[in-house]
Amino acid sequence: YSLYDTGLATYAEGDQFDHKSAEGFIYVWGLPLRSVAKAQKK
């Protein structure tokens, strides 16, 4: 038994992952870093 689903977790042809979602994830994941950088400039 495994929770790994190759259709969701890979970047192969025919996968189900919406690759455009990665851009939003990267933006949200970077918010704390941008906040710290902004605070350090002050």
Describe the structure.
It is a single chain. The protein is mostly helical and 42 residues long. It has a domain at 18-42. 57% of the residues lie in helices and 0% in strands. It has helices at residues 6-9, 21-29, 31-41. The longest helix is centred in the last third of the chain and has 11 residues, at 31-41. The chain is elongated and about 50 Å long. It starts with 5 loop residues before the first helix and ends with a helix. The relative contact order is 0.10.
DSSP summary, beta strand count: 0
Task: Give Rg in angstroms.
Answer: 16 Å
Helix content: 55-70%
Low-confidence spans: none
Q: Major beta sheet, specifics?
A: none
Describe this protein with a few key phrases.
single chain; mainly alpha; 0% strand; 42 residues
Explain the layout of strands and helices.
Elements: H1 6-9, H2 21-29, H3 31-41
In short:
57% of the residues lie in helices and 0% in strands. It has helices at 6-9, 21-29, 31-41. The longest helix has 11 residues, at 31-41.
